[in-house]
Design a protein that fits this description.
Layout lengths: L1 H125 L1
Length: 127
């Protein structure tokens, strides 16, 4: 009777060992899958690091472009002020030239009027 009980226990232990072997295999499979996932996540992290660097490079380029456009706007404003002053001086010079021209035309008109009077007087004397 004791041998039968021992045989029964041996069979139970053998069954338990088989179940433990299956669990060990199952956990081994899980560890392999987790290792695979760890490698995948490492690859994803590397790609994200490259993307972060790429966006950082783009950000730096945009900062340089912002500075470039700011410099252009500043230069344009500077040239606008210079051109405005030059334009104002040119307009004042043009106005002075127009005044001189108007005075010259007015003077010539008075001279022509004086000559007209002299011609009229001479025509009366001759005629």
């Amino acid at each position: 009777d004791i041998h039968q009980r021992l045989d029964h226990h041996d069979r139970e232990f053998a069954g338990i060992n088989q179940r433990l072997d299956r669990h060990d295999q199952y956990f081994s499979d899980i560890h392999q899958r987790l290792d695979h996932h760890d490698r995948e996540f490492a690859g994803i992290n590397q790609r994200l690091d490259r993307h972060d660097q790429y966006f950082s490079d783009i950000h730096q380029r945009l900062d340089r472009h912002d500075q470039y456009f700011s410099d252009i706007v500043s230069l344009m404003n500077q040239h606008y002020d210079e051109m405005r002053r030059h334009f104002d001086v040119t307009v004042e010079s043009f106005r002075a030239d127009v005044r001189l021209l108007a005075e010259g035309i007015s003077s010539n008109s008075r001279r022509i009027d004086g000559l007209d009077e002299r011609v009229t007087v001479l025509e009366r004397k001759a005629g």
